Amino acid sequence: MPHDLSSRGQVHSFTRLHRTPRDAWVSAPYVLAEIGLPDGPSVYAHLVDTAWEDLRIGMVVELVPFVVGAPDGGKVLAYAFRASPGEAVRV
Amino acid sequence: MRPVFVAGVGTRPFGRWPDESFEDVSYPAVSAALADANAPFPDIGMAFCGVANSSLYDSRRVVQQFGWTGIMIHSVAQASGSSAAAFRLAYWTVGAGIVDSCLVVGYEKSLGGMLSGTLQPGTRYLDVLGVDPIPARLGLEMRKRMRDYDEPIEAYASVAVQASYYSSRNPNAHMRQELTLDDVLQSPPISDPLTLHMCCPVSDGAAAAVICSEDQVAQWDVAVPIEIVAAACGSPDAGDLVSGPGADIGGDFKTGRLTRRLAAELYERAGVGPDDIDVAQMHDPFAFATLVDLEALGFCAEGEAGRFVMDGGIAPTGRIPTNTDGGLLRKGHALGATGVSQIAEVVKQLRGDGGERQVPGDPRIGLTHSSGAGMLNMHLLRRP
Q1: Which residue in A14, A44, A76 is closest to B132 by CB distance?
Q2: Which of B247, B194, B200, B269 minimizes the C-alpha distance to B375?
Q3: For B158-200, how does the pLDDT look when each residue is reduced to its tens digit (9 = 90+)?
């Protein structure tokens, strides 16, 4: 059954991947985060538009569209998170 | 269950052997184990092979190159734990009195690097987005653990340095160079803060063991039989389902919850506690795992493993010499071969045959901890 999740969350952890995984349509290096949502679950996602030096566990992030290029030249709409200037979220 | 003993062990050096067949890779290990046990192959009652990636007939060939004696040959696949699972099934089979002896063979020709891989094909959107590669899981968990326990990055580097101390003294190891803290910290970044030398190499290799009943020990005139005192095994239960969005391997790799549950079973069955154990081999594909396992197996308190390792706790003279063959990190990880390779190392240590890496103090009780596809196989071995 579909369930709406919050579009804002909190960074539980983050890492910068240096090798492009097999089968990935994105290229390393890139930043990944585990993001806790106020609804309970946590998700793994790309963390974009945020300087590496500014990343902190506990920082608030918000969902943004994330377009990934497919090998056939097409584009796929996915999701990512970025630092959110808004208020803290309860996770 | 009647008493069961390891009569002999053998290891084929781990490395990359692209030109060798499965029979080539496993032959030296099996020959050595049979010779070590003083066991003629026709005496063997049943065979159990452990291999993660092979075809239907390979385990048959690996065993039948020693003779077509008509025995049953099993092939067990359980990812990194394949031959630990094979060893346990052989232990149960001899213990139940079905046959008097079993040959256990772990062998592998590895397919490729885990550093670029995901655990479970079919979770396509995760692969395409590149959000759940194995090293990222480790990088994320390391950062959390370092923060939660105020643990320095040197704790993880110390695990690799200690492993390299052992592997540099192990002629069967894939990675024999002894490393310094700087070597580990300055090695190429994989998934920050995880660096290359905090990850195991993927290896080819083989290991074998011959196990048997007390009567067979006498018949073969085995010099120093090592008793298999207990085994514990299991898969994640509902409470272990705290992994990421990818394959449901369970959360043992980050919480040690399944290891803790099965260690309690193992210790109760064997009538020992962690304080009685003299040497241990733990599943350490990443330095992170050793810290989680040291705590989950009861060798130190939760949150203390980093300082425990930095204070020499897993060194030969430490509280619990750990991964004394170099572990997966430095001996190498030949998937299907790794489980029996751990058993072989404990047997050698308990017999005092550890060579340059022998742990002092006449070790008598050893533990193996093997993980594969999120499931665990643990064994407790004792020199009578």
Answers
A1: A44
A2: B247
A3: 999 999 999 999 999 999 999 999 999 999 999 999 999 999 9
Alpha-carbon span B68 to B56, nearest angstrom:
17
- Residue among B199, B191, B87 nearest B131 (CA): B191
Start-to-end Cα distance in chain B: 17
pTM of the model: 0.95
Q: What is the ipTM of this complex?
A: 0.94
Instruction: List the single residue in B112, B128, B191 with the smallest CB-CB distance to A17.
Output: B191
> Does residue A75 have a pLDDT over 70?
yes
- Residue B52 · residue B335 · CB < 8 Å: yes
**DSSP H or E stretch at residue B287:** helix B287-296
What residues contact residue A4 under an 8 Å CB cut-off, 6+ apart? none
Angle between helices B257-270 and B287-296 (to 10 degrees): 50
Q: Say if residue B303's pLDDT is above 80.
A: yes
**C-beta atoms of B127 and A17 within 8 A:** no
Is the pLDDT at B121 greater than 60? The verdict is no
CB contact under 8 A, B143 and A57: yes
Q: Which of B158, B331, B136 is nearest to B253 (CA)?
A: B136
Kindly provide the b/e burial profile for residues B205-242, where b requires at least 16 CB atoms within 10 angstroms of the residue's own CB: bbbbbbbbbeebbeebebeebbbbbbbbbeebeeebee
- Give the pLDDT score at A2: 82
Least confident of A39-53, B72-86, B355-369: A39-53
